[in-house]
Write a structure and sequence with these properties.
The structure is a homotetramer of 327-residue chains. The first copy, chain A, is α/β, with parallel strands linked by helices. The first copy, chain A, has a single domain (3-222, 278-292), classed as NADP-dependent oxidoreductase domain (TIM Barrel, Alpha-Beta Barrel), CATH 3.20.20.100. Chain A has helices at residues 30-42, 58-70, 103-117, 136-148, 162-174, 193-198, 200-206, 241-247, 250-266, 270-279, 294-301, 303-306, 312-322, and strands at residues 3-5, 12-14, 16-19, 47-49, 78-83, 122-127, 152-157, 182-183, 209-212, 284-289. In chain A, the strands form 2 sheets. Chain A has an 8-stranded parallel beta barrel, surrounded by 4 helices. Chain A has a two-stranded antiparallel sheet with strand order 1-2. In chain A, strand 3 (16-19), helix 1 (30-42) and strand 4 form a beta-alpha-beta unit. In chain A, helix 1 packs across helix 2 (58-70), helix 3 (103-117) packs parallel to helix 4 and helix 4 (136-148) packs across helix 5. Chain A is globular and about 50 Å long. Chains in contact: A-B, A-D, B-C, C-D. Chains A and B meet through helix 3 and helix 4 of A and loops of B. Chains A, B, C, D: Keywords: NADP, Oxidoreductase. Chains A, B, C, D: This is Aldo/keto reductase.
């Protein structure tokens, strides 16, 4: 495993990292999470991504229990949380607790996450989505104040527009506050424009780092939807109906079929190919893997061996197949 | 109940809110306050207005006991306090404790409020009146420091001139401090100029939000003083003599009579008409109701159904009746 | 007793205040100090001046014990301390503890004073003298940081040059720090130039307030040295030899004789005349009295009745007598 | 012993100071360290240099135990620590714990040092080396935040380039943060260019102070390597092989031979001559001695008597011998 700076910051994150594993209907319990964390850590993963909203806070509880059991030295791992959607189960109202980045929500949300995680501080905190109803200055000041209070070390955004990220950075610079350091965008072979075009100037101008999510496009890039939705897959679940259509997209599944040929040539799995392609982008600080099983995690980590095989010629073939279909 | 942003801030306050219920000679005890808070909360009210001076601190004590009994999630309600007049009963002197916004008073006053309310932080803190004897910079810095210390989330003013509010905002901007977010002015059919004219430029320039008080002009707009001061009314109390004259103002009570006709047309009470008219102004973030009885609160909340009925033609008729008499 | 703003700040200090009473060889014990504090407080005095160096910390210990016994409300009194000379008895070295305003000394000194005084914060902290060996910026930042930490409310200087006070004010303004608010200079009929000439522009430009010391010029203005040094007086003490010469200054004692005539005309004591003359200067926020006996305190407080009698004509006569001799 | 300001700061450090004594394979235990500290302190030394990396944290543990035993007043001594290399024994990974000045490492490292030293604050904290992989702004902000949190009093650098020191100073000035105060460079007769040339403008422009290390060039300047590596010396140790070559440099040992003649003339040891020569440079705030035995410490402190003997003529002779060989 190699490590990269989180954008222009001095923090080193593992190229591949682990996240979100308890998000899907609690497929993973504390014991399973602890084993998976241990396996990832042993493989060199040092960044474990989380969010308040994952499993409505339960993801943080489980991760916190795992940390307690694993007794790692606190310097050796990086934890994140993200704030925006709030915990809606614990209240009948959504006012000031859902879809917001106002000061009241942020100051209270971080305290809740610290408690659930059982930690004194969170390494990375994110604004999980943009909130058009809160001035960016209010959000910047709250995130910066959380860092000043010692409750977090770095802050960033997730799925913000380049314009909003730049606004946040400039406001922080002007008022001498802690500036945003990283963004967590979706990034994979079929979802590329934001990372490759919209953010282009930010890397140099503000030193933006990326922690990317959905490397396999919700599983589409594993090839398992090429012949329809298999029983037991995520897309077969009633609650995931909204996702089913795009996972069965004919053109994309056909493209995946072509990618499979390249994966065969390289002697790797489709997932490994897809992850290696992201890892190859030097703007990406870390690729967050979403594995829910140890076997899946091990397969995904195998992508590290594939990255060096991605010659310009191979990349050109991959791009020719996927770029026309990518958003 | 709908929610509005507190000015340009990201905080959402209910259109109607509840305040001051223990201000009038302790008409309401903790049990009564708890019931009223619960009723308001169930109706969607999320902002509960208070001040150090209300019943000389007892209003905060009662509200704190009610909060303890109600066990609401702290994210779901917004509490305020205000500082200026001080607690004069607890001392023989008024120096540095009355009519001041100096640093010594403010830093100690907020600690007292937190203790009486039994809270870790107050959502909104106000400078209850302007203090011409303290530099605005001293006050701005103290209010901002209280927020930095985590004892409050947002700060604002009450009954300040537009010039002073702007001065405070500019000083905070220049020194990178927390800026004032809201103002609490008197606003009703007979008291309009400050909100509609004096503050006009502040809404756009500084994003000022309003939490308005005295929607019924001390009861004048309920119509109960049309035939003199009824026994048992607030104005009948010895200590309220100063208020009696204006409540018996002939021209205003005649205007109230005309408004009663409009209320009848709309099938609502006079109080509901008066509240709905304030609620209709998009510059008003929330109308603070001053109910001391549950029945009164329920009647007032009925104003929400009246607001949509205030067509431009109806508003023109209301304005024709009241504007000539309004300060 | 009347109250004045401490310069342009919003803090109200009593025109006359009490200080230093345990500085002279522990003439006053805790019981005596408590009685004197109580008497002063009852007369309206709200400012009690102290310093780390007075009786090598014992003055703070005694005052702290008196506060504990008196149980005043913390809003109703103002306490000061001052830092520069350090506590030299507790160590064999003077390095970083004597004649310094460096960060190490200041940060530790304030903690010691808080402990001795038994308080959570000190209202006013002073740099007791200028320190040419520490950059003003280092001192400004330390004093401001102490306020930000909540350990003090306002800071100022004592016996600093106008140039240094202005430098401190400008550095604080530029770096958005807490600015100095007051200066504690010697000021009496025979020591006037700094207050009246050197600081002249600072009052308007920075809002400087004054808490003045030595109103009686070490007793010279009481007239008791007109016929030599009386047995038992301060100047008769061996350790006060350095002071004896100036207290026996012939020209000054002759001038005091002339002032005695004016005091007789006004029906007041010489001390009252001298104090009233200082009190008359609107630039003076408070005159710190140095009484060691209750009777002396009561006499000095009588100056308040004399101030209104100081007509322009009387003042002209006083000035004609003293100004030629004043430094 | 005399004291000098640490650069332009107000902190007074002893001309000679003591450091690192547990760095060499734990030659000194707590009892020995306590005795040495006591001897140095009695001789007037008030600065005790340390670093996280010395003996992998054990140096701080030992010094903390010695402080506890010695019960000095906290004002009377100055302790340092330095951060960069991290504690590598306590973990299998070096990521974010070695060769870094990122925020995560620094914030956690200072807490570890405080705990090992058993102190509430460290007087001086250093960036032990430059980290080209962390933006200077991130490091400046973290160091400044540590001071704001009260965990340290002053911060500086060790072995940074003039350009980086200036960048750090300017960033701190622009963002109103605590500026770096001192640098800890190697400085001795054979290693001079950085202190004498590279930093030349910094002394005036930023007030940089110096705490210099390696006064004897790892022992070369004691003359003990003139006839090869003696058994039992540091250079004879297997792990110090990298140092052996330069300690046996022929030209330098020949120069040391010539210096011995000057030392004889002055009636002092070679070590004393070398230390006195550094002490003579007014840009040097303090010379850190690396003694591991009491006798050695006493010999080194004898340099203070030699400094006055370094006439311009003597210095010219010393420079003629060493400057051509100096880096």
């Amino acid at each position: 495993m190699q490590y990269r700076r989180l954008g222009r910051s001095g923090l080193q994150v593992s190229e591949l990292s682990l996240g979100s594993w308890v998000t899907y209907h609690n497929q993973v319990d504390t014991k399973g999470a602890t084993e998976m964390l241990a396996a990832a850590f042993d493989a060199g993963v040092n960044f474990f991504d989380n969010a308040e909203v994952y499993a409505q806070g339960e993801s943080e509880v489980v991760m916190g229990q795992a940390f307690k059991a694993l007794k790692w030295n606190r310097l050796d791992y990086i934890v994140s949380s993200k704030f925006f959607w709030g915990l809606t189960r614990e209240s009948n109202t959504t006012v000031n607790r859902k879809d917001t980045l106002n000061r009241k929500y942020l100051m209270q949300a971080v305290d809740g996450s610290l408690k659930r995680l059982g930690l004194d501080f969170i390494d990375l905190i994110y604004c999980h989505r943009p909130d058009p109803h809160t001035p960016i200055e209010e959000t910047v000041r709250a995130m910066s104040d959380i860092i000043t209070q010692g409750k977090a070390l770095y802050w960033g955004t997730s799925e913000w527009s380049a314009a909003d990220i730049r606004a946040a950075w400039e406001i922080a610079e002007r008022h001498h506050l802690h500036k945003p350091v990283m963004e967590q965008p979706q990034y994979n072979l079929f979802h590329r424009k934001r990372v490759e075009q919209e953010y282009a100037r930010l890397y140099e101008d503000t030193g933006l780092g990326l922690t990317t999510w959905s490397p396999l496009a919700s599983g589409l890039l594993t090839g398992k939807y090429r012949d329809g939705v298999p029983a037991g897959s995520r897309a077969s679940l009633e609650s995931m109906g909204w996702m089913r259509e795009q996972l069965q997209d004919r053109a994309k599944n056909a493209a995946v079929g072509q990618l499979a040929g390249i994966a065969d040539e390289l002697g790797c799995s489709l997932a490994q190919l897809a992850i290696a392609w992201i890892n190859r982008n030097p703007r990406v600080s870390t690729v967050i893997l979403g594995a829910s099983q140890a076997s899946q995690l091990h397969d995904n980590l195998g992508a590290l061996a594939v990255t060096p095989k991605l010659t310009p010629e191979i990349v050109a073939r991959i791009d020719a197949i996927t770029q026309p279909l990518a958003s």
